[in-house]
Amino acid sequence: MLIMALLVCIFTLSLIIHPQEVLESSRDGLLIWSNSVFPSLLPFFIAAELLIAFGVVSFLGVILDPIMRPLFNVPGAGGFVWSMGLVSGFPSGAKFTVKLRKQNKITQEEAERLVSFTNCSNPLFICGAVAVGFFHNVTLGLLLAFTHYSSNVVVGLIMRFYKSTASPSTETVSSHSVKAAVQAALYEQNNDKRPFGKKLGDAVTSSINTLFMIGGFIVLFSVLYRLLNVTGIIDYMAWFPSLILSSISYGSDLAFPWLSGFFEITVGNKLISDLASIPLLQKAVVAAFILGFSGFSVHAQVASLLAETDIRFSPFFFARWLHGIIAALLTYIFWQPLYIQRLEHPAVTGSTNESFIVIWETIHKQLINYGSFVTMVFLFLYILLITFYTTKEHTSSRDLF
């Protein structure tokens, strides 16, 4: 703890010494959050909260139980968490794993298995931001997406053996028929007596609370990375990645971008794409690792969510290393069949490739133009809901007396 206190003191002193860099990095992190992260994640978070409230997750839990238990040793409800993680990206898997754990739908061990493979980058980020936005290469996006999600499945299959002798959850079902699934959904609805308006309001406030936490970590790690960069500390830290890359005959120029990716995946992949002297295969392998590892910023977000429960962070941390290593290996293995051969026999023509680039640039432009507006509207709605709930609780407490 003394070391942590010392590091916090050094961090605080650095904030005072470099105020301009802190201001710029804070603004950059806040813009990323308000323009992209908030408007893209909020609809999924609200929809998922409502699906849980109306018993859809219980319905899917019965239907998917025969698939999820043999493969991943988790209840069928984990299929819902997995799908939300795939579609919306980090840290959705952790958020909804915590939700199921709080409702006692899964055990501690099942939650630790589930959170280890339900957190991944969403397809828009891999194919849009990384492949098209940074590398300007649609075919590379297909390769990175395939290796990222397939390695994620492998991680889930491996983590199924984590504490496999632990007792399963009480949500284990004996019947997997549609009738049993409907009964499970009705049972969930009968237990939740909240009216629709209350469910919707709770979904909005819960989602925005989570997004506030995510935004705080984005700004924090944006500042931390900038301080490490401006003080030159990160250059000294890069010697170890450089040593690893040299041992496998990879260019040492990849060391700094790779290390940057340990802190923030967007920065790391952008720096990798800017390297002109490094072969594309080497850049793709390191980029795949960064996508799988996901960066300490995401780790901190997940750790904050897990802290609300008894779910341990260490299995997730181990799984991120596993995901990064497997994704890098699969990228190297499938480089020839999924990238080189597709270049020789393209399924995507040059004009179509340009169309994908135009589509991504349009989406990115729309997020920049309207993302902050959407964020401000929902923040205003959030303030109204909090004010309404606070006033209502105050009135109810006064009536008691």
From TrEMBL:
Q: Give the source's domain of life in one word.
A: Bacteria
Record carries keyword Transmembrane helix: yes
Q: Where are the transmembrane segments?
A: 43-64, 71-90, 123-146, 203-225, 237-259, 280-298, 318-335, 367-389
Question: What UniProt keywords are attached to this protein's entry?
Answer: Membrane, Transmembrane, Transmembrane helix
Q: Has the keyword Transmembrane helix been applied to this entry?
A: yes
Domain Nucleoside transporter/FeoB GTPase Gate residues, every copy: 36-130
The record's InterPro entries line, in alphabetical order, gives: Gate_dom, Spore_IM_YlbJ
Q: What is this protein called?
A: Sporulation integral membrane protein YlbJ
